């Protein structure tokens, strides 16, 4: 009996929050609907949502967080045409409705603390999205083309998931300022990160035994202020990090770091950047190894019918001397073509005779 009373009270609260009332003037309800901007149903232990009769298009913020919701009706999200903030964190959601792509004005989406394994591809249609928080789920991947459409996204938080990679399209998020992908299973980062010209914070820490290298393009993030790569398997930082003029915070603890050595890190960030810059400059100045012609190697081995000469005017030096000069035409004649035949070049008598 007590449980039924609690349920009735809960449903009454929900109906009141959604603009529903068993009693009251119809005109007054219409006025309330017109003024409605925020609907807060958080922390009410809801297992499901009622089917409201109010105009959902009047809602600019809908908070359904801290409940027990396992799904969100497609019909509900499809009618939230003017919603700017949609918060469903800390529920039991295993998937999001495809109709979330109808939220063309949505700016903040918080789906953290659920059981999501994937995000619907239709999320790409939320082109006004500024912030996407999908922390603490079971995501194994993000939509492949997520970065091509979310051109206004400034913060992408996907920490504490099971991501093994970030899609290459992420590098097209040119408005992105914060990328938080810590506590995943990332084995690598996308190339072409330099396209993220506004990225200020990059956190890929605590990918533990998976992340071993950083791409060279990390050092080309011209706006980067904070870089956290702690607790991975990284042994060396790319030299390009020495070019990050705006970098103010660099976290590398928990890595088997060899280059730069840990004693350099213990000095200062400036010392680290200076070390990497000098290493990069030294690499550019190092002389190129002289390339030797393969013909010369064949000649030295006696393949082209030359002979080794010792002594004479050259002292003890060894050199190659052609036995006689022959023109190209002469060498191409039937008489001499045989000297280039595979049978001659690789005959046992040529290579193994005493």
From TrEMBL:
SUPFAM superfamilies listed in its UniProt record: L domain-like
Note whether Oxidoreductase occurs among the keywords.
no
Which Pfam families does the UniProt record give?
LRR_1 (PF00560), LRR_8 (PF13855)
Query: Tell me, which GO biological process terms does this entry list?
Result: intracellular signal transduction
| Superkingdom of the source species | Eukaryota
Which Gene3D superfamilies does the UniProt entry name for this protein? Ribonuclease Inhibitor
Keyword terms, alphabetized: Leucine-rich repeat, Repeat
Would the keyword Repeat be found if you checked this record's keyword annotation? yes
Protein name per UniProt: Plant intracellular ras group-related LRR 6
